[in-house]
Structure formats: C-alpha cells, structure tokens
Amino acid sequence: MTILHVDNVRKTYGGNSYALDGVSFSVEKGEFVAIIGPSGAGKSTLLRCVNRLIFVTSGEVSVNGIAVTGLSNPSLRRLRRTIGMIFQHYNLVNRLTVLENVLHGRLGYKSTIAGTCGFYTASEKNRAYEILHAVGLHEHIYKRCDQLSGGQKQRVGIARALIQDPTLMLCDEPIASLDPSAAKIVMDTLRDINTRLGITVVANLHQVHVARDYATRIIGVNNGRVIYDGLPKDLTIDIIQKIYGSEAHDLILADGDTHGTH
Amino acid sequence: MGLKHTTSFSQMVTHMARIDFFVRQRIVAFVVFVILCGLVYVSIVVTEYDVAKGFTSIPKAVRWSTENFYPDAASFKKINKIATRLSDTIITAVTATTCASLLAFFFAIIAATSTRPHWLFSLVSRAIASLFRNVDVSAWALILLFSFGQSTFTGYLALFFVTFGFMVRVLIETIDQVSGDSIEALRATGAGAGAVITQSVIPACLPQIVSWTLFMIETNIRSATLVGILTGTGIGYLFDIYYKSLNYHAASLVIVAIVLAVLAVEALSNTVRRMML
Ligand SMILES: Nc1ncnc2c1ncn2[C@@H]1O[C@H](COP(=O)(O)OP(=O)(O)OP(=O)(O)O)[C@@H](O)[C@H]1O
Ligand SMILES: [Mg+2]
Q1: Which residues, 6 or more positions from B210, have their beta carbon under 8 angstroms from its beta carbon?
Q2: Which residue from A minimizes the CA distance to B198?
Q3: Which residues in chain A are closer than 8 Å to B179, comparing Cβ atoms?
Q4: Which CATH superfamily hosts domain B75-276?
Q5: Which fold has domain A2-82+166-260?
Q6: Which residue has the higher pLDDT, B53 or B188?
Q7: CA–CA gap between residue B35 and residue B41 (Å, rounded)
C-alpha cells in the first residue's frame, strides 16, 4: 500500500532558483526511508511539503491517497493528525511539563473549544503515561522540558508524535543536535516504531552511515533533485560523491574509518 | 595546477570584497559622525545656546535646589493629599498598561510571522502600532485634551495609546523568537489556530509578556506624572499647583513620593519576574 506519493514536486522561495526541482518518489507502508544530501539540498523543504507546512509551487503530494495541495483547512487538520513529525531542535514548549508537551499531540483530534482550553480526556492521559513509559521517560513525566537533556527532549518529541496514532512519521534531522549515545537511543526508538508498530518512517539524516544502518531505503538529494533512490547496500562511494559533491570527501573519510564499505 | 589557480583567484576576489565591505562600513560610520557634529553645531547656532553658560549654570542650579527644594516640616501636613493623588496616578498607569498590553497581544498575534493569518494583517497591525508608538505620550495628551478635556480619562488614553504601540512591537518579536518552533510543531499535529495560541504561544511567551508589562507599568508611572500636569489630574497636577504657588517644599515632597513609589513598583516587579522564571 502506498503511504506517500510525491509527484514532480517543485518549490521555489521566490527568485529563479528551485529548492525542489521536480522530485518524484513513492513510499510503501512499513518502509524506513532515509533522505540524505548536503546542507541546502532541500531535505527540510521536501519533508514540510508532505504535511503542507510549506506549499509546493507545482506538482502534487498525496498521503494515504489524499492529495494535500487542494485540501480545505479542516481536511488538512484531519490529515496532519495522522502524520507525526519530529524536529532537529525538538520544537517543544520548554516551559511546560513533559506530559503537557506529549498531550499536545492530541490537539489535532479536538474541537476548537476543547483544543483552545486544553481539555484532555482520562484515556488520553493514560495513553501519554504508557507512551512515556515505552520511550523510557517515566521518571520525568512532571519535569519541565527545559530541564531535560537533548536526547530526552527528542524522545518527548517522539512521544508527542506517537500519541497522534500516526501512519507516517516525518523526522527532520532527528539526531543532528545529539551526541552519539543519545543519537543511538533515538534512532533505535525510531526503528522500534517502524518494525513493531508498523509506522512508516521518512527521516532526513546527515550521516550516511546512520542512514545505512537504519534505513530500508535511501533517497539521495542534491540541489533539489533526487540523485539516488534505492537500497542502502547499493549506495556506492561514487554515488555518495555525486550526492554530496564537494562535501563528500570528509564524509567518506569519516565513514570509511568505522565501516570500510567499498 | 590550473584548478589551484582558479581557487586562489576566487579566494582573492572574495577577500577583496570583504576588505571593501569593511572599508565601506568605516566610511559610513565616519559620514554619520560628521553629520551628527554638523547637526549639533547648527542647533547651537539656531537656538543661540551659550555652551559655556550651559555648564557654569549647573552649580547654580544645585545651590538653588539645596537651599529651597527640600521637604520641610510644614509640607508633611500635605502627605495625605499627596498619597491619595499618587495612588490615583498609579492606578491609572496600571490599568492603562494592562488593558493596552492585552489589546496589544491580539494585534501581535495577527502580525507575528509565525501566527498571522495573512501578511496583510501584519502590515495593517504594524502600521497602526507604529502610529500610536511614534507620537509621544505628552503629544497624545495634548491631542486628547481637545476631545476629552482635563480628566483622568485623557491621561488614561494617552498612556494606553503609547503602551499599546510599544507592546505590539515587542510582542511580535517575542512571539517569533520564543515560540516559532513549537508553533510549527503544533501545526504539524493538526492543532487549530486557537489551540496553537493557548497551548504554545502563551505558555512560551508568558514570562516575556509579564516582564514587558511590568516594565511599562514602571515607565508609565513616571509618564503619568508628566501627563497629569497637562491633563490636570493625579500627582502631576498636585506638583504643578505647589510649584506654581511657589511652595517648593511641598513640591519636593511630591517628587520624593514619586521616586519612592517608582522604586517600590520596580522592586515588586523584580520579585514577580524572579518568581515567573
Ligand atoms: N524560508 C525560506 N526562504 C527562502 N529560502 C529558503 C527558505 N527555506 C529554505 N530556503 C532555501 O531552500 C534551499 C533548501 O533548503 P532546506 O532547508 O530544505 O535544505 P536542507 O537540505 O534541509 O539543508 P540542511 O541540511 O542545512 O537542513 C536552500 O537553498 C535554502 O537556502
Ligand atoms: Mg534541513
């Protein structure tokens, strides 16, 4: 079953350069797709076009068979609540507690009044406790988020996305601000979500070796175009060089030390 | 070899562009300085201001103040009257500030980049705020005197307008800086506009909102005194009466009372700030 279909998407922020320049691909249910590419390649833009945080300039994006460009506001909200999203900078409300931040994931299901007043049902709160247990944050439920470490904050972000009961999870550089051990916990959590809950994951990643280790498929983007779309094992050094251009040299050196894939 | 040549050439070009940039900055700074000096000179000539006399009269002013401008025993009989007037002024300043801040929050929401419904709202809201902000509080008081006469309401409105203009500006920046990221996250969950504001913008910005409101209350107590002189209300009016009737001792007591009140409010608001953060 196709979860996500991106069809010839172009995006320009004004001016005549394209952040996305004719991107097409489909993602099937259960896949773990890593999108890699150099800084400024258009990865964040691409992800935000999926849930229409950014409007595409032309082309079409469909999620679960629903085209996102023409959606009315209520339908867009209904679609968005089935798509979880986590961010490089976590995007939590730092002054609120972990529990409150997780419950924000339910706002897409609420009427205007219930949402504005922040009313949550008992079963929603119970769900939040369960999920926080599952991501290993049960000791921090009532802590304010500004007292957490980066890795813990990102797991709050994941919990907030999970409570939405998403079918698709978008991750914009989820580990770019984390140290290796925290990054591993976050990536393992994402893999767990993917394999055990069957949630499709599309993640922008900066590190090629992380993409290789976790993804079932890799899409390489450069300058708004898809350069590579295939299995991690078929990603050769030549292709990495094409995807990353001048940045490739450092990457291959750093990568080759630990993995030695040639 | 050829490749190396091109890189070093392009490096040289960027290097030169950079030097050019700093040189231009320095030239701009110099020109501004010259213009400022010119302006000072022109204004001295136009106002026939005697620079030397300006400085020599300072000791004279100090001497006059120490001889006449202090509260004496008789002036303390007026302390009750002063206290009532002062509390009037403080209440006016506090209500004007809080009401203006509340209205400013709505204008800031529709103007901030991360929350505005459309950029046109932003334009209109910013324009209105800028109009209210850029007319001085005493000018507002004089303008409003025509319509509302000498009353507390005139003073209240003058303070309200200026505070409103200032707070819109400050809150727009706060909303974009502090809550931009979490607004994006809540949008992505499918949250409605109301929920985004109450669950993300307000909790994230609350310390700044409170802090700026308190700051404006402090400022407005000072301004209210001045406005009171113009509108004939509050502590400002009392000062005016004493001063014009040459009762300098009582007038100085008024000043002391105002300073004490401002210090007290400042201490109070600092405590509140510390508790919030
Ligand atoms: N709001 C914006 N306004 C104008 N240009 C933008 C905006 N956002 C992104 N761009 C441009 O679009 C291009 C793609 O940006 P994008 O953020 O999608 O890249 P990215 O692959 O996520 O990079 P990074 O790895 O650094 O996050 C860049 O050239 C960037 O300068
Ligand atoms: Mg990015």
Answers
A1: B272, B273, B276
A2: A116
A3: 93
A4: MetI-like (1.10.3720.10)
A5: Rossmann fold (3.40.50)
A6: B188
A7: 10
